């Protein structure tokens, strides 16, 4: 019972940290302003490494619910849903593969690579068919307006397809790599604890 309470408390703490990290974002040159690099998936990744992929999803869910409830940004949860799908895909695929192959430094990078590729693919498809049209709708804009806005950052963006190819896809690849690099020292410290519990 105490173990379950400690786990719940720790995941709640990770969710809160993830929520706070959602406000720490950095814009990238040549990318539209709505795409900013952040590291809010790191707490979910830690939770998933310690307690399994579903724990990581729970952290992703809670941090996005907190963000939706406690901020007044527009978008009617489209951004939070997008963040949840991206983060959950990255965390679940990465940690699932890591666990399948057993914990090691090499398998950490294999997992992170798979998670990054999965996130980039899923978010490319989801943004094309769902998130960009939905965001345009709730903001009272058209998809063409978003394309025009994005073109100010990168003149190669002339259609929804090129927005995906030149912005969404590379952005998620960069995001996954950046988070893997930041997470690796944390993983190295946690690995003896994980292995002792196996």
TrEMBL record:
Gene3D superfamilies xrefs: 1.10.1760.20
Pfam families: ECF_trnsprt
Location in or out of the cell: Cell membrane
An annotated Gene Ontology molecular function: riboflavin transmembrane transporter activity
Topological category with respect to the lipid bilayer: Multi-pass membrane protein
Keywords, comma-separated and alphabetical: Cell membrane, Membrane, Transmembrane, Transmembrane helix, Transport
Family that this chain belongs to: Belongs to the prokaryotic riboflavin transporter (P-RFT) (TC 2.A.87) family.
PANTHER family: RIBOFLAVIN TRANSPORTER RIBU
Protein name: Riboflavin transporter
């Amino acid at each position: 019972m105490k173990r379950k309470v400690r786990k719940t408390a720790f995941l709640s703490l990770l969710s809160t940290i993830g929520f706070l990290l959602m406000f720490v974002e950095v814009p990238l040159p040549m990318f539209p302003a709505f795409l900013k690099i952040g590291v809010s998936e790191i707490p979910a990744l830690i939770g998933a490494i310690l307690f399994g992929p579903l724990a990581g999803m729970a952290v992703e869910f809670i941090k996005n619910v907190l963000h939706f409830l406690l901020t007044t940004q527009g978008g009617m949860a489209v951004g939070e849903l997008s963040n949840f799908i991206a983060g959950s895909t990255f965390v679940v695929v990465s940690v699932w593969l890591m666990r399948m192959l057993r914990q090691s430094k090499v398998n950490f990078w294999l997992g992170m690579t798979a998670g990054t590729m999965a996130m980039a693919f899923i978010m490319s498809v989801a943004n094309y068919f769902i998130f960009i049209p939905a965001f345009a709708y709730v903001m009272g804009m058209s998809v063409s307006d978003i394309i025009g806005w994005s073109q100010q950052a990168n003149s190669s963006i002339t259609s929804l397809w090129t927005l995906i190819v030149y912005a969404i896809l590379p952005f998620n690849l960069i995001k996954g790599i950046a988070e893997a690099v930041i997470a690796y020292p944390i993983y190295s410290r946690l690995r003896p604890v994980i292995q002792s519990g196996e």
